[in-house]
Amino acid sequence: MTKKAVVLLSGGLDSSTCVAIAQKKGFDVYGLSFSYGQRHTIELEASKRIANAMGITRHEIIDIDLRAFGGSALTDDIDVPKGRDEEAMDAEIPVTYVPARNTIFLSFALAFAETIGADDIFIGVNALDYSGYPDCRPDYIAAFQKMARLATKAGIENDIGVRINTPLIDMTKAEIIKTGVELGVDYALTTSCYDPDQAGISCGQCDACILRLKGFKEAGIIDPIEYQNDIFR
Predict the structure, then answer these.
(1) What is the pLDDT of residues 15-49, one digit of tens each?
(2) Within 13 Å and on the Cβ side, how many CA atoms surround 167?
(3) Spatial separation of the C-alpha atoms in residues 24 and 9, rounded to whole Å
(4) How many other CB atoms are there within 10 angstroms of residue 11's CB atom?
(5) Domain residue limits, the chain
(6) What are the backbone angles phi and psi of residue 58, rounded to the nearest 5°?
(7) pTM of the full predicted structure?
């Protein structure tokens, strides 16, 4: 019997790599994306491209509107920081942090997994080359895993319940990219930018773009997506 896994699919390079890793491990992948009021809705089109190209079993896009709360540059009228170095990124939790986003997404993924009989969830959180979000840390994932075992039928009826898989958590962005390339991920289908233009072209200056470009440079691979100014590449 084929194993099932829910993969949180944002349309970025991390989640796309998670899809490839899950498939390599023999899982039928059920992708879960969210239209949550984010300013970079272009990522939803990327998630559709990835789901189609990678042949996932089923792809769901859930509508929730976190603009009702705001509090983030991704869901509110707040400028996205540009041109920051890694020291500045590490200094504080950035305004692009969406309050409780991963907790919300993982809760939906947990419900989806129970409904389809999946024992595994994959999420592309990373604790090295990232923007300092508190819900990307290993202790957060461990706490959510404990909660999942306490709060679900699957957790009560067996010793394990639904497993939260974080295959990228200890990898650099360069290592993630190299892994994805080895597994055949087409990163030209992905997007990472927090503030693309109306055509969906990446700015090259937000934290997500800077970390992505750094990863490709360190991996010795040319980033295949388009940027508003090729100087960023």
Answers:
(1) 999 999 999 999 999 999 999 999 989 999 999 99
(2) 22
(3) 16
(4) 24
(5) 3-232
(6) -155, 140
(7) 0.94
CB 145 within 8 A of CB 123: no
CA separation for the pair 109, 148 (Å, rounded): 11
| pLDDT tier for residue 135 given thresholds of 50, 70 and 90 | confident
Q: Which residues contact 123 (CB under 8 A, 6 or more apart)?
A: 7, 8, 15, 18, 102, 105, 106, 109, 141, 164, 165, 166
CATH pick for 3-232 out of 3.90.1170.30, 3.40.50.2020, 3.40.50.620, 3.30.300.30: 3.40.50.620
Q: How far is CA 12 from the centre of its chain?
A: 6
pLDDT of residue 116: 95
- In whole angstroms, give the CA distance from residue 43 to residue 48: 9
Rounded distance between C-alpha atoms, residue 167 and residue 231, angstroms: 32
